[in-house]
Each structure stands twice: as structure tokens, then as C-alpha cells.
Amino acid sequence: MMLKTQKRLAAEILKVGINRVKIDPEAIEDVSKAITKDDIRYYIRKGVITVEPKKGISRHRAREREKKRRKGRRRGHGSRKGKKTAREKRKDAWIKKIRALRDELKKMLTSGEIDSKTYRLLYRRAKGNLFHSRRHLREYVEKYIKS
Length: 147
Fold this sequence. Notes:
Largest sheet: 2 strands, antiparallel
Oligomer: single chain
Distance between the termini: 98 Å
Strand content: under 5%
Radius of gyration: 36 Å
CATH topology of the largest domain: Non-ribosomal Peptide Synthetase Peptidyl Carrier Protein, Chain A
Structural class: mainly alpha
Low-confidence stretches: none
Number of strands: 2
Number of domains: 2
Order of helices and strands: HEHHEHHHHH
Strand order of the largest sheet: 1-2
CATH class of the largest domain: Mainly Alpha
Mean pLDDT: 95
Number of helices: 8
Shape: rod-shaped
């Protein structure tokens, strides 16, 4: 039985897509005789014509993936989209590095490993981007300053 017109009218009344309009299979005979919007409204009130609920998209898989990412998984080269500087700005990387170096220099000064003159020299060299890391700074001090 063709119920194309009835479904279209019901979709207009209910303000949904045609695919979401469901007609009770036992009342198909009656609904097929309905030709006006009033007839369709009557069947909607009776509960013969209903609207199927919208299908939601489950977030379960997304949450699982996010949990793994927090653990550090799924972050390899194949998963990266942006450039290195898009993922961490060059300035932010510099700030992190220089703070670490200056912190290390202060520790060395207060512990007496270096004197204030050497501190100033190394401070300037750190600012000039000579050292890669705390470790590199310590190695430099061992090799050139202490010898």
C-alpha cells in the first residue's frame, strides 16, 4: 500500500523528515484513506502516526580514545596534524627552556658551585641560546668552567 502522500503530510505537520514518520502497520488501511491534513492530525492524536526519535551519536569511543591520549598513547608521528610550532609555539618552548636554565643557574649559585661572575657569564650565554637543556648547562660548567 502506498502511503507516500500521508507520510509527506504527516512530516509537514510534525515538522520532521519523511523518514522519521512511522505508521502503525495494523492501521495502514485506515491511514491510506486519509487525504487531508485534518485526517492526518486525527491519526497523530490517536497515536497511529508517530515520530521516530532522532538517532544520537555515541561518545563512548571518543571518550575511550581521549583516555588513552591522556595516558600518552595515540600521539605518535602518524597522528599529528599540525607543525611542531603549531602544537607548541616557539615562544612557549623558549619560555619553558629559559626558566629551567635560569632556575638551574640560581641553584648552582646558591650551592656555591659557581661564583657570581661566572653566574653572570652563564646567564648571558643562556639568554643567547647557547644551552639546549639543564643537562647541557651542567656539562658545559664541568668542561669549561671547573677545569
